[in-house]
Design a protein that fits this description.
The complex is a heterodimer of chains A (about 1000) and B (about 200). Chain A is mainly alpha-helical and about 1000 residues long. In chain A, about 65% of the residues lie in helices and about 5% in strands. In chain A, α2 runs antiparallel to α3 (about 40-60), α26 (about 540-555) runs antiparallel to α27 and α41 runs antiparallel to α42. Chain A starts with 7 loop residues before the first helix and ends with a helix. Chain B has eight helices and two strands. Chain B has a two-stranded antiparallel sheet with strand order 1-2. The chains are: A mainly alpha (about 1000), B mainly alpha (about 200).
């Protein structure tokens, strides 16, 4: 009898029996079934069918997914085996091997051949049914926008297009990396290392947000770390790209997983589950979830492997995550996480986007505050917390944004006290204090909701109070002047120099009206004004202002005033910035300032500042021993406790010592002090304080010189990004110095395409401000033009460079020698061998150095002569010169400073041996080379590979000569591989000097001919 | 925040709370009325989602139900305790919305071009087409005559994506009971679809 024809009652009975049977032991069940078969055969058959169905249903996972997932799985299943094959071409790309597949389509490792060089990329091939016409339209439009986004921590979208079959594909930078959480676990990273890594993620996200691109699908799978420790965010903005405009709802995209399954809600924000608008706050939520995972080892809302979708979805919508300190899988972490980090995660993961951090950067800043042991914004509501943290720190605030009320207030009181106001004029100080407190009270009234009031930035508060001082205190001009002075100091301490400047100008007017044009008050304000003008890069005006201040002080005979001595210091600094070191005026001003301070204010920290100025001036004069002596004097004053300084100044002393020691080729000591400087700066001012960054910049430059260029690149890139963020992209002081150094590094790594825009930007800024440093980017750009074969431009850039450099750095200076070398190189490139030789010989004649202290400029000039001799077929002369040069470099105390020259001299020696061998057997290999010829070339290639980027022309040059050497030795495969590598590298350059092209052609001819 | 996205609002939805509590107390008329009200909300959301054929990749039953709930709750101030009652209804609604929608689509596409649908997640050894969804629906209706509770449980699990624990809480049963009922119902349905 067919079970399906049972009536309702029979089915009920069968189901009841089934229910009883399944809870029984197997033996007992068989016994009961046998009984049933005898007594109720119909029910027995039904129950048997059901038992079988149960087993099969369980095995098949029947109804296990929800209805929609079931529909989706079938509709979304890939259409059979791969639709693409290895070796197949899509547009200009050749598919190499599949990297993965999912519902969105397949991901392939692909290669693009382009003008003889190849590049490996990740190619995402879109599933055809996803490619509706509106997706197509969007693809090309927004793909272009996304491709413009370039950031070292974001996997670059390289291309978005369709092939002749109409298949859509995305081409992305291929990232060979590990999931961020796995990376941290594998290296057993501690909390602060994890936080630092996440800071990189935050900044990359902020970069994209700045371009109005939201990731929408940030999760650990999309955040990889490459072998060198660089974070890379994948698929940025891709979710949006795949969005179908004709769909009614934006959030659909958010629910699309790129691997085809529906996004698990594990890392989703409530607005994504709810189809509410996706904004940058959605990414902030995802960053919070990532932070949570990195800290606690678990996703914030539980694991999708153990929770049902329903539970996860509900948790995302309704539950606040368990604080990471309680969720942490490692008990030892719990205490570390409790407090700040719990609060930071909580704030990033708020259900309401408005309550989260306002930006990825704000999240980053709070994490940084935590790392600096400063109060975090996330805990702003907790009473007493800020005060306790603040007292521990004992110093004025420096951060510029979103500083909490209590912290700022404490900062104001400290500043007032430091200004000396509180001590001398208690009554007026009270009035000032009341005024300042009033600012906060009025702010709270303006924002009755406490959270908003707390997030008013320090800058906003200052702007508000400045307006009130300017408009509301006309009847009490004295108080007004005083307050303007205080506010300008606060602005200066927040590094908002422009505002400080405008307040000081205001104060100057008040002082003039109140105390008279020639009063001491005016002299003091002028001195401070000069300082502010230096800070914004207006050195010419600063010089005038300082001179006016000095004239007034001298008229009053007030030479014991600190501001008088400082005015000399400002004058010295302005003179140095304006390149007036030659006439000694900078040095003289500093010395005058130092004498005044030693006489009248021997314990004032400004004494250190003046010693530093003198030390810097001595460096410019190539008086390196003297420079070190000044730096040591400053160090000793602090060591002996004669001058009490803060952490910032202490860091400055280390930095100056490091710099002076570097000039004296005392590398180990130099590096030690440079690193100590960074530690001091960081402790006192935090990671993004301009001084911390400048300390890192100097260390980066040191590493650059000594050939540790990978590390230098990371450091200098980081410094430039941070400096630009803190001071603005075109700040002529710190940012542009950082940019110039970074560009110099890129150049020296052979990354011409990256270096060029940075150099042009630095030049533009310094041309505008009249900064003498402009000669540096000019020199660097001329080097690039030279290797690009754009000789006219190189010549134009170096036109008058010797004069300009002598004017700034002085005749006989290091930079002067470097300029002469460059002129020789340009003459050689233009084929003017006589002029080139004369120019190179000038370096050897005009910059005599003891043999054991050969430096890079002389080495570079000698190499210029070697090249001329090789070109003139004078190989014996060239060999003798190169061998002598190598011996001198190896003997020199400055050897670590000239890795480029050391690599080149090895290259030339090897090249000469290859040329000799090739001359012996013009038609083919004439027998193996001398072993040390090969050794030279291997050494050169190794040094270059360690320092340079893959596209470096110098690396390519070394490889080509090494290829020819291997060819001579019969190692054909190795030779061809080197040729291929060199060709790939050179193909990066749209324009190349003839000598590289000829070398490539000749090498290829020999190897293939 | 959750209510910020709600525009306008049906003034009559305000009494959903009352309807819910009345239906809990066994008022059949209130229950039908509630069913009708919630229906329009859920149908409009689900239809909007389902309209995006052919890619069904963005659908998420639980997400839909939650969204419907949150929208209604945001508009009416539905107390949290009523969410469970709501889910029971929503599950039924999801079932009718999905099945209706598939039926419509099949009508449109008649003449081939059927999308193959599997009603299991992995090890899909038994692929069924969309007709199978309708057969599942019919089997479920048959089951409801034999075991009303079992059929409700399937609706909540399969069409609304609720967990065993949720279903248990909604029906005020122990999870063990729900698990047993689920097992029985699933066997019944599997058998029905295999025929």
């Amino acid at each position: 009898m067919e079970a399906g024809s049972l009536d309702v009652a029979a089915w009920r009975s069968a189901l009841d029996t089934l229910e009883r049977l399944v809870s029984l032991e197997a033996a007992e069940r068989s016994r009961r079934l046998a009984d049933l078969e005898r007594s109720e055969p119909e029910t027995y058959r039904a129950v048997r069918t059901l038992l079988e169905a149960d087993a099969q249903a369980a095995a098949a996972g029947f109804l296990e997914a929800d209805a929609l997932a079931a529909l989706r799985d079938s509709a979304g299943a890939p259409a059979g085996p791969s639709s693409a094959r290895a070796g197949e071409r899509l547009g200009p790309y050749e598919l190499l091997r599949p990297l993965g597949a999912g519902g969105m389509g397949e991901v392939w490792l692909a290669r693009r051949d382009h003008g003889g060089y190849t590049r490996e990329v990740a190619l995402k091939l879109l599933r055809p049914d996803l490619a509706s016409s509106s997706v197509r339209a969007r693809f090309t439009r927004e793909g272009r926008l996304l491709a413009q986004m370039s950031h070292p921590n974001i996997a670059q979208l390289l291309d978005a297009g369709s092939d002749e079959l109409g298949r859509l594909y995305l081409v992305l930078e291929y990232v060979d990396g590990v999931r961020i959480d796995a990376w941290c676990d594998r290296r057993a990273f501690g909390v602060s290392e994890r936080l630092r890594l996440l800071l990189d993620v935050c900044r990359a996200v902020a970069h994209a947000h700045g371009r109005l691109i939201v990731h929408r699908d940030l999760k650990p799978e999309n955040v990889l770390v490459t072998r060198d420790g660089t974070v890379k965010l994948l698929d940025f903005g891709i979710a949006k790209l795949l969005e179908d405009e004709h769909r009614t709802d934006d959030a659909l995209t958010a629910l699309t997983r790129l691997d085809g399954r529906v996004m698990t809600p594990q890392y989703a924000a409530p607005e994504q589950v709810l189809s509410a608008p996706i904004t940058t706050a959605t990414d902030v939520h995802a960053l919070g979830a990532l932070l949570y995972l990195l800290l606690s080892g678990r996703p914030p809302f539980g694991d999708s492997a153990t929770l049902s979708r329903a539970d996860l979805t509900r948790a995302v919508l309704e539950q606040d995550p368990v604080p990471p300190s309680q969720a942490a899988t490692r008990p030892d972490l719990r205490r570390t996480l409790r407090g700040d980090l719990d609060a930071i995660c909580g704030k990033a993961l708020r259900k309401d986007p408005v309550e989260r951090y306002v930006s990825a950067l704000a999240l980053a800043e709070d994490i940084e505050r935590h790392l600096r042991h400063e109060p975090v914004v996330a805990r702003a509501g907790l009473r007493g917390y800020r005060a306790s943290r603040f007292l521990r720190r004992h110093r004025a605030i420096l951060a510029g944004t979103a500083v909490g009320v209590a912290a700022l207030l404490a900062g104001l009181v400290v500043s007032l006290w430091q200004a000396g106001v509180a001590r001398e004029q208690a009554a007026r100080a009270t009035a000032i204090q009341n005024f300042l407190i009033g600012i906060f009270e009025r702010n709270s009234v303006a924002h009755p909701d406490g959270a908003r009031a707390r997030e008013t930035t320090a800058e906003d508060l200052l702007a508000q109070s400045t307006r009130e001082i300017r408009s509301g205190l006309a009847e009490t001009p004295e108080l007004r002047g005083e307050l303007l002075g205080v506010m300008s100091r606060l602005y200066a301490s927040l590094d908002l120099q422009k505002q400080a400047l405008s307040l000081l100008q205001d104060k100057l007017e008040t002082d003039r009206r109140l105390h008279g044009e020639d009063s001491l008050e005016v002299a003091r304000t002028l001195s401070r004004l000069a300082y502010s003008q230096i800070q914004i890069g207006d050195w010419t005006t600063a010089e005038t202002t300082a001179l006016r201040s000095i004239a007034l002080f001298e008229r009053h005979g007030a030479d014991s005033e600190l501001d008088y001595a400082l005015a000399y210091g400002h004058l010295g600094q302005a003179a140095m910035r304006l390149g007036k070191l030659q006439d000694g005026s900078s040095r003289n001003h500093y010395r005058r300032a130092l004498t005044l301070i030693e006489t009248h204010h021997p314990a004032d920290p400004a004494r250190i500042e003046m010693l530093h100025g003198l030390s810097r001036a001595a460096t410019h004069d190539s008086q390196h021993e003297r420079s070190l002596a000044y730096a040591r004097q400053a160090f000793a004053l602090v060591e002996r406790g004669e001058v009490k300084v803060d952490g910032m100044t202490r860091g400055g002393i280390h930095q100056r010592l490091g710099n002076a020691l570097h000039w004296l080729s005392r590398y180990d000591e130099a590096e030690k002090h440079m690193r100590a400087a960074i530690v001091d700066y960081q402790r006192a001012g935090g990671r993004e304080h301009p001084f911390t960054l400048d300390g890192k910049r100097e260390l980066g430059v040191f590493l650059l010189w000594t050939g540790r260029r990978q590390e230098a690149r990371r450091l200098l890139g980081e410094v430039l990004a941070a400096q630009a963020r803190v001071k603005g992209g075109d700040d002529p002081e710190l940012t542009t110095h950082a940019r110039s150094d970074y560009a110099n590094l890129l150049l020296l790594r052979g990354e011409f395409a990256a270096a060029e825009p940075e150099l042009l930007r630095a030049m533009a800024v310094w041309q505008r401000t009249g900064g003498s440093q402009v000669t540096r980017p000019r020199m660097d750009l001329s080097r690039i033009r030279l290797d690009q074969g754009r000789l006219d431009e190189a010549a134009r850039l170096t036109e008058g460079i010797e004069f300009d450099i002598v004017a700034v750095f002085g005749r006989g200076s290091w930079s002067h020698a470097a300029a002469v070398v460059r002129l020789g190189q340009i003459a050689a490139a233009r084929g003017d061998a006589d002029e080139a030789r004369r120019t190179f010989e000038r370096v050897w004649n005009e910059w005599p150095e003891p043999d054991d202290a050969l430096t890079a400029n002389r080495a570079a000039a000698a190499l210029g002569l070697v090249r001329l001799e090789i070109a003139a077929q004078a190989r014996d002369a060239a060999r003798r010169r190169a061998a002598a040069l190598l011996a001198a470099i190896e003997r020199s105390s400055a050897r670590p400073d000239m890795p480029d020259q050391e690599a080149e001299v090895h290259l030339r020696l090897g090249q000469l041996a290859v040329l000799d061998a090739e001359a012996r057997g013009p038609s083919g290999p004439s027998g193996p080379l001398a072993p040390d010829a090969l050794r030279h070339l291997e050494h050169a290639a190794r040094m270059r590979a360690a320092m340079d980027a893959p596209e470096s022309v110098w690396l390519a040059e070394a490889r080509l000569w090494l290829a020819r050497a291997r060819w001579q030795n019969g190692e054909r495969d190795a030779a061809r591989a080197l040729l291929g590598q060199a060709r790939d590298g050179l193909a990066h350059h749209p324009s190349l000097a003839a000598r590289y092209l000829e070398l490539l052609r000749e090498t290829a001819r020999r190897l293939n001919g | 925040m959750l209510s910020r996205d709600i525009q306008g609002g049906d003034p009559k939805v305000g009494d959903i709370t009352e309807l819910l509590s009345a239906s809990r107390d066994g008022d059949v008329a209130a229950r039908d009325e509630l069913f009708r009200r919630v229906h329009s909300e859920l149908v409009s959301i689900a239809r909007a989602r389902l309209a995006q054929a052919p890619a069904l990749t963005e659908l998420d039953a639980c997400g839909l139900v939650n969204e419907a709930y949150v929208r209604l709750a945001g508009r009416t101030g539905l107390p949290g305790a009523d969410r469970r009652a709501f889910y029971a209804y929503a599950a039924r609604l999801m079932r009718s919305v999905i099945v209706d929608r598939l039926r419509e689509r099949r009508a449109l596409k008649r003449g081939g071009d059927l999308i193959r649908v599997t009603v299991s997640t992995e090890n899909a050894q038994d692929p069924v087409d969309q007709e199978q969804f309708e057969r599942l629906d019919a089997a479920l209706t048959e089951l409801s005559r034999i075991d009303e509770r079992g059929a409700r449980i399937v609706e909540m699990r399969f069409f609304a994506g609720l967990s065993i624990e949720d279903v248990a809480a909604t029906l005020e049963l122990s999870p063990a009971t729900v698990k047993r009922d689920w097992m029985k119902s699933r066997a019944f349905l599997f058998r029905a679809l295999r025929r």
